[in-house]
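Researcher: Here's the sequence for the chain we discussed earlier.
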Amino acid sequence: MIAQLDRQTQDQCIIQSGRTWEQFKLIQAGFEDSRGVRLFYYNHTIEILMPGRDHEFFSRFIGFLVGVYCMDKGVEFEPLGSMTQEQEGVVSTQADESYTFGNSKPTPDLAIEITFTSGNASKLNRYGALGVPEVWFWEDGLFSLYHLRSSGYEQIDRSEIPELAALDIELLTRCVLMAQTSRLAAIAEFRQAISSSADRSQQSDS
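Model: Thanks. This is the structure I predict for it:
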């Protein structure tokens, strides 16, 4: 068993290797009533994450801005939060935020992870086993976007999900960072930029 504590963010993570799916399900059942605890299983490894304040702040605010974008752009979306995603006997994961766009689907179109430590490659493996088309990581004030190809995930500059293709990732990044000092200012700037972008698009079409 490996226990890790990030003193800056106060995330607590317990990792147990050499475990079976049946052992994972027993542990999962034991945490059934524990709000805020995230559980993961892949490649005989169990990870138990207890997110700290910073982790939850970035997760919720990024999720909020994605929701604002969808509402302002008239995008039909289904926010699924940290819904458990599983393939029996193989993998179980809980994203910080997850979504489907357009019609509801059993597998989310997008998963978002807040990371304060390394290990993104193993997290991508979990999502790849589930067939999640796109995964975003927020780490050290930056987004890293990955889209699933036939050969695995490839890093991309902007979303390839049709409903999010016009979302300016640099704008999203700037507003998430701004939110650390003023949430209202960040939301106002985000909405104004989205509106200005829509106005320019309409003018060019006409």
